[in-house]
Structures
1.
Amino acid sequence: EIVLTQSPGTLSLSPGERATLSCRASQSVSSSYLAWYQQKPGQAPRLLIYGASSRATGIPDRFSGSGSGTDFTLTISRLEPEDFAVYYCQQYGSSPLELTFGGGTKVEIK
Amino acid sequence: EVQLVQSGAEVKKPGESLKISCKGSGYSFTSYWIGWVRQMPGKGLEWMGIIYPGDSDTRYSPSFQGQVTISADKSISTAYLQWSSLKASDTAMYYCVRHLHSGWANDAFDIWGQGTMVTVSS
């Protein structure tokens, strides 16, 4: 089983600042099958990034993903008020199939 | 519009059975894997399993194998998650999800249902 560890647990930033979120896998993630999701209180999660770096439909270009192997990063270039939320990474490349999530990073207003 | 619409909130007693549903629309239901994700109160996301409605091929997370049953009725574009005997620890929000690419089991989730809250309490 691939375990995903997200850091930090909480990130306190101000609007306009840059956010850098980390997701580290216990084993190499096949074919960069790594996704990022955003979840706001009381809402279902929303897909932001898939394939480590491809933005999902309708996602603003201030969101970007990078990384390969065991280390992945989600960057929000300039935080907007609506970006304060919890972010989860997910790997979907393992065999046998297991589509595991990280524990999440909360981005809060400083 | 592509969407997944889930059944409403449920309140059950320990030991009771339950089946919740997820109806897909706006796309070819039989061509995309559908999955279920659990979120316990105040906690993170947990993948439970997936089904391919085209042939009912089903895969489970080891953590949920034997604890729940995932099924689908392609004639009405609906997937299901069921329990035979609920426990208090099953209290959670359950989301159904659609995979991003047609036919891909190893995939991200691009469409999420609105969630079904299941409360199990005596």
2.
Amino acid sequence: QKEVEQNSGPLSVPEGAIASLNCTYSDRVSQSFFWYRQYSGKSPELIMSIYSNGDKEDGRFTAQLNKASQYVSLLIRDSQPSDSATYLCAVNPGNQFYFGTGTSLTVIP
Amino acid sequence: DVKVTQSSRYLVKRTGEKVFLECVQDMDHENMFWYRQDPGLGLRLIYFSYDVKMKEKGDIPEGYSVSREKKERFSLILESASTNQTSMYLCASSPLADTQYFGPGTRLTVL
């Protein structure tokens, strides 16, 4: 069983729409959760971190965490073509990061 | 800003060569990591280190070794490169149990 699961996509949304990216994890002791964005040929860059149940907003991005359901999501409002990338979910149960394989997002102008 | 640098962006080596990949971070982070990333397989952890001269095996350590003689520097060594080690190699650093920051990556091709 994989530690972190994401839909690989591709996910396509029109410009201006809301993109919803989902992630589930298996380790119940995980306390730290992260979303990274990775453009083709580049390294991952941090978008959001979330540690408590509920929502956390940063500009057009909202991370949502539900520890009881072992579920974390990322919403991108007013999606832009520059948001087209692969989004990686990561969890940290204490001493090691576990990454999902990523969801490919394409925002269509 | 956190800065993680890697010695090369692109590298081409021959089968059997010894390969050194260097990673340096400037934020005094305790933890450093080496991953490889392959299409469809995501990020796979090779080795990590919590402190100078400390190292821990990740999920795929076979064929690799590491060295951490100074806190800011973490080296990945391919003792005898093979074609199945052609990949993107990513170094990351983090403060204790917190966000990982990635270097730009090294795309290694082994011929």
